[in-house]
UniProtKB/TrEMBL annotation:
GO biological process, any: proteolysis
Residues in Metalloprotease TldD/E C-terminal domain copies: 248-466
GO molecular function ontology, one term from the record: metallopeptidase activity
Name of the coding gene: tldD_1
Origin organism lineage: Bacteria, Pseudomonadati, Gemmatimonadota, Gemmatimonadia, Gemmatimonadales
Source organism superkingdom: Bacteria
Family in the record: Belongs to the peptidase U62 family.
Name the record gives this protein: TldD protein
Annotated ranges, domain Metalloprotease TldD/E central: 160-240
Gene source species: Roseisolibacter agri
Domain Metalloprotease TldD/E N-terminal: from-to ranges: 53-114
Length: 472
């Protein structure tokens, strides 16, 4: 069954290669459809080498504010990108029209641009056929079939309790379901389908001084409990009214899992081997080389990624078709591996590797136990407005937000005003005192699903707060 029609006609994206024309609304292109489109596009190519990528699917979102849905929308699309190569010159062009004329035109545009492009001294030839491990780890029918009514019911589970408590809730719910395929002129073909979903909410008190947040992200929508998120945000909002100012400085912190993920995911973005080899990274060793084999954080910390992990699924291949496997980046505090793209891997004589999802080891302590063991410190719900300061130490700055509380003599005593922090996840992971059970969290600042990440709550000493913020 073909998924493309004449130019200007409505386009149908079928979820099943054997689906009939009377099927329910389509969501994404099947493997067979992608293979057919790829064959057609590549047949138009006159370049030395060519690669086509095909991304298709549906994205749905519902926003709510003042305890009611404010906007909602669903978008369907299929995008074809052609990369043409002449020698060491390459360029790409993109279209979302799947008729023959448009596909031929995108090939011609890519080839014209490629002939004008400067030579790339680091250009590599396209890969030949690869072996890919089959996986459905990142797919959920519950997410793929969640409709606007289902999203509205989830929002209602937050807005009605908030209204009943005389509080104001806002938030964002997003779901995605789609497929990605890659093919090239050397016979490579890879296909993957994936889903993702996230829901976040911020609840405010009538006087505007109290604010509570809760969020979750998962490829399986059934793993997100909207009512529980609302209840948690409502509780934090009530407890955070009339915050007091405290002196900036170094504090013992109890970081909830979202705050931990906000920091720890920054390590994943710093694992590039080339930066380390060239002396531009925390993972660069003084005097040359990298820190592979060196202890850099507490021995209780292990960071790993596995695209086939059902809790942290990721892409099993990169955008050039390189297979992605499981990797341990930090093992019991020691750097074990860095991430190598194809060019740098070939130059260094190692296998390519990349981060796809992230999991951090944990312990058995509960948040309550961490708080009870703290003489004086801060409980932090999440971190926000995170910006880089120094890549050589993975130092970042940002703000606490939506639930920051003072701990005194093992108890939460009052809400405090938000604080600006300057801290590195490396420093934090060297100052660990306790860790809890790892959980899947929503760690993106914008409320979108973000990368799959599983981390524990932690207690750490000497977290650096540099100034106060009057923002709620």
């Amino acid at each position: 069954m073909s998924a493309f029609h004449d130019a200007g006609a409505p386009r149908s994206l079928f979820t099943d290669a054997n689906a009939s024309s009377n099927s329910a609304p389509a969501r994404y292109l099947s493997r067979a459809d992608c293979e057919a489109i790829a064959r057609k596009v590549l047949s138009y190519s006159t370049a030395d080498e060519a690669r086509v990528t095909i991304s298709s699917g549906v994205s749905g979102n519902t926003r709510f504010a003042v305890n009611q849905v404010s906007t909602a929308g669903d978008t369907y699309d299929a995008v074809v990108t052609m990369r043409s190569v002449f020698g060491k010159r390459a360029a790409s062009a993109t279209t979302n029209k799947l008729d023959d004329a448009s596909l031929r035109a995108v090939v011609q545009r890519a080839e014209a641009l490629a002939r004008l492009a400067p030579e790339d001294p680091e250009a590599l030839p396209e890969l030949g056929p690869q072996q890919y491990r089959a996986t459905e780890a990142g797919w959920s029918e519950a997410t793929a079939t969640l409709d606007p009514a289902g999203r509205a019911n989830a929002v209602k589970a937050v807005t009605e309790p908030s209204r009943g408590a005389n509080l104001t809730s806002t938030g964002y719910l997003e779901t995605n379901a789609g497929a990605f395929a890659i093919a090239n002129s050397k016979g490579l073909f890879a296909y993957r389908r994936q889903t993702s979903s996230s829901m976040t909410t911020t609840v405010r008190t009538p006087d505007g001084t109290g604010s509570g947040w809760a969020g979750a992200s998962h490829h399986d929508w059934t793993k997100i409990d909207a009512g529980a998120l609302g209840a948690r945000a409502i509780d934090k909002a009530k407890r955070s009214v009339n915050p007091v100012a405290i002196e900036p400085g170094r504090y013992t912190v109890v970081l909830e899992p979202t705050a931990v993920a906000n920091l720890v995911q920054l390590i994943a973005g710093s694992l590039g081997a080339r930066n380390a080899d060239e002396g531009r990274s925390f993972f660069s060793k003084p005097g040359g080389g990298t820190k592979i084999g060196m202890k850099v954080v507490d021995e209780r910390v292990t960071l790993s990624s596995d695209p086939f992990d059902p809790e942290t699924p990721g892409a099993p291949f990169t955008f050039d078709g390189t297979p992605v496997g499981a990797n341990t980046w930090i093992d019991k505090g020691v750097v074990k591996n860095l991430a190598y793209d194809r060019y740098w891997a070939q130059k260094q004589g190692v296998a390519p590797s990349s981060v796809s999802g992230l999991r951090m080891s944990g312990g058995t302590a509960t948040l309550e136990e961490m708080i009870a063991s703290t003489q004086r410190g801060l409980l932090v719900t999440r971190l926000w407005y995170i910006r880089g300061v120094d890549p050589r130490t993975i130092l970042f700055t940002g703000l606490t937000r939506d639930g920051t509380f003072l701990i005194e003599n093992g108890k939460i005593t009052r809400a405090v005003k938000n604080l600006r922090w300057n801290e590195s996840p490396i420093f934090m992971l060297n100052n660990l005192e306790m860790m809890g059970v790892p959980v899947r969290v929503s760690a993106s600042e914008d409320g979108s699903p973000g990368q799959a990440i599983v981390v524990p709550p932690v207690k750490a000493r000497d977290f650096n707060f540099t100034s106060l913020s009057d923002a709620v």
